[in-house]
Design goal:
The chain is mainly α. The protein has one domain. It contains six helices and no strands. The longest helix has 18 residues. The protein starts with a helix and ends in a 5-residue tail after the last helix.
Length: about 120
């Protein structure tokens, strides 16, 4: 049985980042990491980037973990956090080469805080 994506997002939104101080990829904030991962996923879906099955299997959990690591400590509401990620993703997709987005997104996935 497949879990609808919306239900999975809501379930993962309840996860909290670990308190071990794990940081996202060097120079990329948790907000940037969530946006980069989302941008890479969008670009794989529309063909601007080649599919990467390994990364795609980790996108949802990693993006949501970075989103929560950004939003929860600041008390940002879920709706506002998603809006911030969407806006940042759009900025990155308009200003950054797809290969750089993918490289940075992979670094963010590799450094996803443990929940």
């Amino acid at each position: 049985m497949r879990i609808p994506v919306a239900a999975a997002l809501l379930a993962l939104a309840a996860c909290t980042p670990s308190g071990d101080g794990a940081a996202p990829a060097k120079a990329d904030s948790h907000l940037d990491c969530a946006a980069l991962i989302s941008a890479a996923d969008h670009m794989m879906a529309d063909g601007r980037l080649a599919p990467d099955k390994d990364m795609q299997s980790k996108v949802l959990v990693s993006a949501m973990t970075h989103l929560n690591a950004y939003a929860i400590p600041q008390g940002i509401a879920e709706k506002d956090a998603f809006a911030a990620v969407d806006a940042r993703r759009d900025e990155l997709m308009a200003s950054t080469a797809p290969e750089e987005i993918l490289s940075r997104a992979k670094a963010c996935v590799a450094k996803t805080p443990r929940t």
